[in-house]
Amino acid sequence: MDPDAVARAFVEHYYRTFDTNRAALGGLYQDNSTLSFEGAKTQGVAAISEKLTGLPFQQCQHNISTIDCQPSGPAGGVLVFVSGSLQLSGEQHALKFSQMFHLIPTAQGSFYMLIDIFRLNYA
Amino acid sequence: MDPDAVARAFVEHYYRTFDTNRAALGGLYQDNSTLSFEGAKTQGVAAISEKLTGLPFQQCQHNISTIDCQPSGPAGGVLVFVSGSLQLSGEQHALKFSQMFHLIPTAQGSFYMLIDIFRLNYA
Known about the structure:
The structure is a homodimer. By secondary structure, chain A is an alpha+beta fold. Chain A has helices spanning 3-20, 45-53, and strands at residues 29-37, 40-43, 60-72, 77-88, 95-105, 111-120. The first copy, chain A, has one domain: Nuclear Transport Factor 2, Chain: A, CATH 3.10.450.50. Helices cover 22% and strands 48% of the residues of chain A. Chains A, B: Keywords: Cytoplasm, Nucleus, Protein transport, Transport.
């Protein structure tokens, strides 16, 4: 496994899904997954999906600036650290953000997010 | 173990050490530790210490804005995600940054950084 390739592919898939079909993001979590979104913690597929689909904006576009990653643990996990900007529909300025994912291999050969932490970087 | 308490205590200790005695940071890593600093990867206590002490500024002051954390793995690890600003001596404006730590318990009852990823958030 090449952690950099896993990280790049996952990040691309995650943000494309977020920006085009946010309701499908639930498939990238499992019931032991946790999300911290701007400090609010939720756990499990249902609660995380509800949080993400309920965010108070409809259309958005993520633009990625940097992707860092490191392998994590003997089971083939990958820690991914992303910085970028988020353009919301109707807003003049993009919002800068940072986000980290702890990716864990699934029995099906893909990865899910055990941990997802998102923060806007306010000026 | 309270992951939030571990995270807060570690973050306070790390940045205080960084700002007052950077050469002592090496004691917070072990030889399987990795550092990604602005995309440059180093591994092991000696290489990480050399990278941190060789950064091209002398005095600095970190100010922390947010600390998020989640427990990680059965062995008592903690993932910590920090945002804040970094004031360099002689510079007018502080630099915003994000950083993540994967903390692992030591046999002595403290924690070391298995993974450390740092990024400036450019405007």
